[in-house]
Design goal:
It is a single chain. This protein has 148 residues and is of the alpha/beta class. Helix 1 (13-25) runs parallel beside helix 5 and helix 2 (41-54) crosses helix 3 (67-73). It has six helices and five strands. Helix 1 (13-25) links the parallel strand 1 (3-7) and strand 2 (30-34). The chain has helices spanning 13-25, 41-54, 67-73, 92-99, 115-127, 131-147, and strands at 3-7, 30-34, 57-63, 80-85, 108-109.
């Protein structure tokens, strides 16, 4: 059980930190990569190969054209969760880039700047076969209800 968190730019670090906080809380192992569809396209191939062999889920964080999540999703059979980042246009440009994938290339998407929800969705996917993660999700949700 392992998650790869990919960010398209160093400026996405604050969103990555939100995701990592949840993954740490749920004791889900992860790694992260700085990889860009536009600046390091060859590295996307390498990262996608690693996802296919070593990871169960990928969270891909990207702003602006937000090509990274779809680029990764097109190269792996593993679930990919896109997390759009508000860089320009309120993040809508990134959101549309992620949610408007063509038929045949599924890509999940969470809200703009919602790294924590990306990690929670990754945990939900992992909970299908991991009862410890499922229990942590239930405890997390109970705590959130009590805080409300």
């Amino acid at each position: 059980m392992k998650v790869l968190v990919a960010m398209g730019s160093k400026s996405d670090r604050k969103i990555l930190d939100k995701a990592v906080k949840i993954l740490d809380e749920f004791e889900i192992p992860y790694e992260f990569e700085l990889v860009s569809s536009h600046r390091t396209p060859d590295k996307v191939d390498v990262v996608a190969e690693r996802i296919e062999k070593e990871f169960d889920v990928c969270i891909a964080i990207a702003g602006l054209s937000a090509a990274l999540p779809g680029d990764i999703a097109a190269r792996t059979t593993k679930p990919v969760i896109g997390c759009p980042v508000d860089v320009k246009l309120g993040g809508l440009d990134a959101l549309y880039s992620i949610v408007q994938m063509p038929p045949g290339t599924p890509l999940a998407c969470v809200g703009i700047d919602r790294g924590e929800n990306a990690a929670l969705l990754a945990a939900s996917i992992l909970s299908i076969s991991n009862m410890q993660v499922r229990q942590k999700i239930l405890e997390y949700r109970k705590k959130r209800r009590e805080e409300y």
